[in-house]
Write a structure and sequence with these properties.
Layout (H helix, E strand, L loop, with lengths): L1 H12 L5 H5 L11 H11 L2 H21 L1 H17 L1 H8 L3 H12 L2 H8 L6 H5 L3 H8 L7
């Protein structure tokens, strides 16, 4: 199910131009640490088009990063997911009745980061990501088929 959601997400967000880009280019933050502040700024602006364009840009950035450095791609994606989960009510209020935006954000927040990365780059090696986790998390991940040792 996660893979289907991630594939659907990438196809929904794989557009070359978003409404926000047409009016003015909205880019993904250069660093993972800047993801939440950029989304916060867009959320506070009250502009759903810009917010949605930023989400699209972030997913495109993750797609770009996954081939270069899966660990950074995962961190980047996780920052976006955490922000969306922690601000779910405000995000839903901002995007209002946009079913497409709701669907994309729901899929993004409900998709495991590793599954998402595997769906957009099935040949990447994610083994190193497990080693960077805290001990308790490593034990859990190592029990997951396809990820564990």
């Amino acid at each position: 199910m996660m893979t289907v959601a991630a594939i659907t997400l990438t196809s929904c967000l794989g557009k070359t131009e978003t409404p926000g880009q047409a009016a003015g280019s909205v880019e993904a933050p250069a660093e993972a640490a800047d993801v939440a502040p950029a989304l916060e700024q867009d959320l506070k602006s009250g502009d759903a088009t810009t917010f949605t364009a930023r989400i699209n840009a972030i997913v495109e950035k993750v797609k770009e990063l996954v081939g270069k450095n899966p660990g950074i791609a995962k961190e980047y994606l996780t920052k976006a997911q955490d922000f969306l989960k922690n601000n779910q009510q405000q995000v839903q209020k901002l995007i209002g009745g946009s079913e497409e935006a709701k669907g994309v954000i729901d899929m993004l927040t409900n998709t495991n980061p590793v599954d998402f990365l595997k769906s957009i780059a099935p040949n990447i090696n994610l083994d190193g990501l497990v080693d960077k986790l805290p001990e308790g998390a490593k034990d859990v991940v190592n029990q997951i088929p396809g990820l564990g040792k």
